[in-house]
Design brief:
This protein is mostly helical. It is built from 15 helices and no strands.
C-alpha cells in the first residue's frame, strides 16, 4: 500500500543508520529511489541524501582500514553520482589523503583542487602537495611560486600542519637559486618580507648572484662585503704582486664556505 510504503521505508532506513549499517542503508536508499514514483520528490530527495551519506561512511571505513584504493574508488563514485551532496568536499579531501598515502601526489593534488571554497587547512594541504610534486619533478620555479603562496596563508593553519613560515621562505630562496633563473633569484633576494626573517641568508644568495653575473664587487655592501672586496681585487690580479695575490686568494678560500649557498 503506497500510503504506508514511505513511512515504513523511512523507519527501516533510520534503523540502518542508527545501527551504522552503511552498506545496507546505501543499497536500500538506492533501490527505493528507483522504485518510488516521481511524485514522491521530498522522500526521493532524502533518499539521495542518505545514499550519499552512507557512501561517504563506507569510503571513510575503507580509509580507516588503510584500503586506500577502495576509499578513492568510493569517493569518486560519490562525487560522480551525488555531485550536489554536502559530503562532496569531505570525500574529496579523504580521497586526496588516500592518494597521498599511496604516494600518488598528482592524483592527490587533483582531488584537493576540486574542493570548492576550501578552508585554510585544505589550502595548506593543497599547496604543500603541489610543492612536493614540483620538487619530485625538479620544477623549482613552480615550487618557488607555491612556497610563496604557502607563506601567505594563515600562520595558524601552517602551524597546525607543522610548517614554519620562515622555513618556506628559506626553501623558496634555495629553489630560486637552483632554478637557474636569474630574474627569479633577483626577485627572491629582493623580497623584503622574506629577507626580513632570513637576514644574512638573503645577502649570501645576493652576493653569489652578483658573482655569477660578474657585477662590480667593489660596490657590494652587506654582511659579506669583505669577501666581495677581496674578489674585486682578484679582478685586478694583473696589478697585484704575487704576495698580494696569494693573500687575496687565501682570504677568498677561507670565506667561501660562509658565502656559497
Amino acid at each position: 500500500d503506497g500510503k504506508y510504503a514511505i513511512p515504513a521505508s523511512s523507519l527501516i532506513i533510520d534503523t540502518y543508520l542508527v545501527g551504522q549499517e552503511w552498506a545496507m542503508g546505501f543499497a536500500l536508499a538506492q533501490e527505493l529511489e528507483k522504485r518510488l514514483p516521481k511524485t514522491a520528490t521530498t522522500f526521493k530527495s532524502r533518499l539521495r541524501e542518505v545514499a550519499a551519506d552512507c557512501s561517504f561512511r563506507l569510503a571513510e571505513e575503507s580509509y580507516k582500514k588503510t584500503d586506500y584504493a577502495d576509499a578513492i574508488k568510493r569517493a569518486e563514485a560519490l562525487v560522480r553520482t551525488y555531485p550536489a551532496s554536502p559530503r562532496v568536499n569531505e570525500v574529496l579531501v579523504l580521497a586526496a589523503n588516500g592518494a597521498l598515502a599511496i604516494q600518488d601526489k598528482g592524483r592527490a593534488l587533483a582531488f584537493f583542487q576540486r574542493v570548492k571554497q576550501p578552508g585554510a587547512d585544505v589550502q595548506v594541504q593543497t599547496v604543500l602537495t603541489s610543492i612536493a610534486l614540483a620538487e619530485e619533478n625538479y620544477r623549482f620555479s613552480e615550487a618557488y611560486a607555491d612556497l610563496k603562496r604557502a607563506a601567505a596563508l594563515p600562520a595558524a593553519a601552517l602551524t597546525k600542519a607543522g610548517v614554519k613560515t620562515q622555513d618556506l621562505h628559506r626553501k623558496a630562496l634555495l629553489y630560486a637559486w637552483v632554478s637557474g633563473d636569474d630574474a627569479l633569484l633577483g626577485r627572491a633576494v629582493s623580497d623584503r618580507t622574506a629577507c626580513a626573517s632570513l637576514g644574512a641568508e638573503c645577502a649570501k644568495f645576493g652576493l653569489t648572484r652578483a658573482i655569477y653575473k660578474k657585477t662590480s664587487f667593489r660596490e657590494f655592501s652587506g654582511p659579506y662585503a669583505r669577501w666581495a672586496q677581496a674578489l674585486g681585487k682578484l679582478e685586478e690580479a694583473s696589478k697585484l704582486s704575487l704576495s698580494e695575490l696569494t693573500q687575496q686568494l687565501d682570504l677568498v678560500t677561507s670565506l667561501w664556505s660562509q658565502v656559497d649557498p
